[in-house]
Specification:
alpha+beta; 5-stranded mixed beta sheet; 3 domains; 8 strands; single chain; Immunoglobulin-like; about 180 residues
């Protein structure tokens, strides 16, 4: 009989703890939000731009939330080479496209984009690796520039021959007609 009372007491305590945790989880879900990030091109040149898509969604009854988003880029040694902080208004779902210009020269190598989103006591962190490659010499652009320069040189030569020919005709006409 004593064993049955202990079993009932233990079951009651377990059930109470389970219900309290379930209620707490429901309350937390009322203010939770989720975040996904993606980088459009994971290999970019040193002076290029990093295109980042951040999708935020929330669950619960909150009408509108201001999510504080920190964007950090770290190198392989864990040193911060870029930081930006923004506030994103979130109703239910938002897809935020961000272009991070790498104006200052960042050395080629592997980097990590870390996005931390904060709302009240909730924090979500996502990381994405990407690579910065050295700037390449674009042969197509070089060939196009050479072709344009050759075309301009040819046009200049033809125009100068036509002008010389016309000047020669004018000089002969002046000589013949004395004007």
């Amino acid at each position: 009989m004593r064993c049955d009372k202990l079993t009932i007491i233990a079951s009651t305590i377990f059930l109470s703890i389970f219900l309290i945790n379930a209620v707490m989880a429901i309350e937390l879900n009322d203010t939770n939000f989720s975040m996904n990030i993606s980088i459009e091109d994971k290999k970019i040149c040193a002076s290029g731009s990093l295109m980042v898509n951040i999708s935020l969604s929330k669950s619960g009854d909150i009408e509108r939330a201001d999510i504080f988003v920190n964007e950090t880029i770290e190198n392989e040694q864990g040193e911060r080479v870029y930081f930006n902080q923004e506030t994103i208004a979130l109703d239910e779902f938002v897809l935020y496209k961000n272009e991070i210009n790498l104006q200052k020269k960042i050395a080629p190598g592997s980097y990590k984009l870390i996005i931390i989103a904060n709302y009240e006591n909730n924090t979500v962190q996502k990381e994405e690796d990407f690579e910065i490659t050295p700037e390449k010499f674009d042969l197509n652009v070089f060939v196009l520039i050479i072709a344009i320069l050759l075309f301009l040189a040819l046009a200049f030569c033809i125009a100068s021959k036509i002008i010389k020919k016309e000047n020669k005709k004018l000089a002969e006409a002046r000589f013949l007609y004395g004007k």
